[in-house]
Amino acid sequence: MSNFIINGLLQSRNPLLTFRRFRGKINIQRPRPPHYERARVLEIIKPYYKKPEFDAPCIDAERLKQSKTVDNPYETIIAREARNWFEHSSLVALLHVNSIKQEDMFKVQVALHRHNISVKVYGKSIMRKAVADTKYEAIMPLFEAKTAIVFSPESQKIKQILNVLKKTPQLVLMGGIVEGRLLSRNEFTAYATMPDLTTVRAQFAAVLESVGGKIVADLQCHQSQLVNMLDAYAKNDSPADKSSVSVTDEKVDS
């Protein structure tokens, strides 16, 4: 039984028919043209692709961008608030924000709030709406990364801002706006060493007063010298006159 299973059922047999290609190998580079009926069907079902225009990718990208752009009313409100901060602040500092803990950022905000200084962080789209068509439009390249803005109604608070930034290396000063004028980092720090406007006005008034007093002294110099010389001459001549008068009196008496 086992021999029957092994020899009869499990034994492999060669196929009775073998297929061979007629006329050798198929030429892939120069295939044989199909039959007329088949060629006609292939020509009918051949797909037709429209030739794209030269600037089609740019046009499609612009259309996609316009379709994705949606005017957000909330961003408009925040942008109006940011513009109000810029217009009513005498001192504005622009800070680049590196990796910092929220706890450390809160400490910075508290330290600046004690001096009546506010810290704000706005997104790029909001700042684009806030500074568009204004004199502050030149600061837009600074908002490619995360940027914090420091607002102060008094320009004399620049020293307090620099003192807080010295204790927080995660915040890097990039520039600022003082009295509506855009300043670089070096100009911003140099402005901190300058005295306030009241002191400068007092110094200027003192200089003008000293110049006026010097002019008056120069004009009266020759007159005062002449008076002093005449006074000295009169004092020197008075004893000689008295002696001459006494001598003449003695001669008359004799």
Indicate the topology.
Elements: H1 2-9, H2 36-44, H3 56-68, H4 73-87, E1 91-97, H5 102-113, E2 118-121, H6 124-131, E3 147-152, H7 158-166, E4 171-178, E5 181-184, H8 185-193, H9 197-219, H10 221-253
Helix pairs in contact: 4-6
GO cellular component, one term: ribonucleoprotein complex
Protein name: Large ribosomal subunit protein uL10m
Family: Belongs to the universal ribosomal protein uL10 family.
Could you give a quick summary of the protein structure above?
The chain is of the alpha+beta class. The chain is 55% helix and 11% strand.
Description:
By secondary structure, the protein is an alpha+beta fold. Among the domains are: 121 residues, Alpha-Beta Plaits (2-Layer Sandwich), CATH 3.30.70; 30 residues. Strands 2-3-1-4-5 form a 5-stranded antiparallel β-sheet. A hairpin with a 2-residue loop joins strand 4 and strand 5. Helix 4 crosses helix 6. The radius of gyration is 50 Å and the shape is elongated.
